[in-house]
Structure formats: C-alpha cells, structure tokens
Amino acid sequence: MSPRRSQKPRFNKQWLLAAITIFGLGIFVFNDLGLLKWYSLRREGIRIQYEIDDLIQRESHLTEEIAKINSDDTYLEKIAREKFQMVKPGEKVFRVVDNRKVK
To answer: pTM for the full model?
Structure first.
C-alpha cells in the first residue's frame, strides 16, 4: 500500500492578488473618501452653486426694486395701492364682484 498524502489546497498567488484587488476596489468605492462619496459631494456642490446663482440674481432684482422705490414716486404709489390697498384722501374705491361661475 502506498501512503496517501493529505491534499492541502495550494496557495495561489493569483487568488491572493484578485482578493487584494477586490478589497482595494471596495475600499476605493465605498469608504468615506471613496468614489460614491465624491460623486455625492460633487452633485451637492453643483446644486449649491445653482442655489447661490439664484440668490445672487434675486438680490440683484431686489436691489433694483429698492432703488426704484426710493427714486420713483409713481412706482411707490403703485406698490402702495396694489399691495397695501391704500387710497388717497377723498378717493373712493369701487370693488367689482363677478357672480358668474366659471365652468
């Protein structure tokens, strides 16, 4: 009878390299400084930049509105009449009520 050798799995360098590569890619993609976090932060940065641009445009519009109110009495009167329902002394206001129903 021939003595049997126990078959040990061979340590394969290719398997080790593949395991290290997969582990490294997993860390690269999924950790706090990984690819997914970078992509998420990039999208958030773009969204915030759009918000900043919108706020700058709104500020510019409001600055123009303030300058117009401070310099144009006719415009100021128009705003007072439309937004605050103000009238001049002795002026009468007529309100038209439409009783028709829209179908």
So the answer is: 0.56
